[in-house]
Amino acid sequence: MVSPVVDEVLSEYGNVMRVVEVSTDENPECVAECKVRSVPTLILFDKGKAEVTVVGAIPKNALVHALRKHLKAGV
Fold first, then answer.
1. What is the DSSP letter of 50?
2. Are 43 and 30 in contact (CB under 8 A)?
3. pTM for the predicted model, two decimal places
4. Residue 55 backbone phi and psi in degrees, to 5
5. Distance (Å, rounded) from C-alpha 38 to C-alpha 59?
6. What is the CATH number of domain 3-70?
7. At what angle do helices 60-67 and 3-13 cross, to 10 degrees?
8. Distance CA 50, CA 67 (A)
């Protein structure tokens, strides 16, 4: 559901970020540690610290806006 939006953002900002998809079924420890309560949840980590959390499907412009201050290059 959010993959096309994430793919679009990654095509523009892939030089400054990478995307990792984690299965909630296969990684319950990660889900608990990151406090994921709903799917989809997107979490931006910067140096191992969760900086931005976006829950639910959102349009590309809203996702870019949420990530903007962390997308240092190419913005």
1. E
2. no
3. 0.85
4. -110, 130
5. 17
6. 3.40.30.10
7. 50
8. 12
Tokens of 17: 């970020």
Q: Is 37 in contact with 55 (CB distance < 8 Å)?
A: yes
Q: Is the bond leading into 28 cis (omega within 30 degrees of zero)? A: no
Q: Per-domain residue ranges for the chain?
A: 3-70
User: How far apart are the C-alpha atoms of 70 and 52, rounded to whole Å?
Assistant: 9
Model confidence at 74, pLDDT cuts 50, 70, 90, reads very low
Paired tokens of 72: 């240092």
38-66 burial, b at 16+ Cβ within 10 Å, e below that, comes to: eebbbebeeeeeeeeebeeebeeeebbee
| 49-62 confidence digits (pLDDT tens) | 999 999 999 999 99
